[in-house]
């Protein structure tokens, strides 16, 4: 469902200075200047940590803004979802992370913070899905793009630990190092309303959106408004054959291959060998097992009109 925005008013801007190695702070500054120049009543909240950012989001929504602008990445967005979803206040994005895949999914400018800020005032309001990841100890984590477990999550973990090189090449180096120590995982999937599946594989993605990792279409048929999770499982095909899948995944055609299993469900329990970690929105989540659930049109997102 999509509606038109209501123009300038009370706008809360939540800035994560740590996002994208400073990109969140830069984007936030530009957005604040733009919104004030357009006559909005802008109130700014800057958090120095995830816990502080969440606390500031709660304070911001308690003050009843017409829209909340988040200058940061997908991880920042998912961390502040609980108070935002409780409030029902629309979310506007000023992309300032590494991947920015939620913004990519909805056509929000990635390199023009002023244009992204304009969408808070002039854009449409679209209801989109969110997801939750529940561990067996009851811990719940929200996400907005893709959860992964396998080669991709291990690569993400290694990338976050590395300090060199910088930029996109850091992910490529991490991926190569993980490929050298490639492991097969026995995935056990229990989708709601469908038979369970047990399959050996290298990587698994469970997506609300099509892309992760800055535009890689791992779940190319995902619909962010259908209330369903799209699952992509790359089977154990051999170390060198897996290399040929890189170009297929980047083109989004890997799901047409028999070596790739896909399915769709509103909720899925994921089990796998001990030691396998999950990541979502580019951030560490925790070990398996987990239960992943889609929540249909739970979030109001500001998108280009």
Automatic annotation (TrEMBL):
Any single GO molecular-function term of the entry would be: ATP binding
Residue stretches making up the DAGKc domain: 6-137
Q: Which cofactor does it need?
A: Mg(2+)
Query: What's a Pfam family in this record?
Result: YegS_C
A Gene Ontology cellular-component term: plasma membrane
Q: Which InterPro entries match?
A: ATP-NAD_kinase_N (IPR017438), Diacylglycerol_kinase_cat_dom (IPR001206), Lipid_Phosphate_FormReg (IPR050187), NAD/diacylglycerol_kinase_sf (IPR016064), YegS/DAGK_C (IPR045540)
Q: Which GO terms describe its biological process?
A: phospholipid biosynthetic process
Origin superkingdom: Bacteria
Q: Which UniProt keywords apply?
A: ATP-binding, Kinase, Lipid biosynthesis, Lipid metabolism, Nucleotide-binding, Phospholipid biosynthesis, Phospholipid metabolism, Transferase
The family classification in the record reads: Belongs to the diacylglycerol/lipid kinase family.
Cross-referenced PANTHER family: LIPID KINASE YEGS (PTHR12358:SF106), SPHINGOSINE KINASE (PTHR12358)
The protein's name is: Diacylglycerol kinase
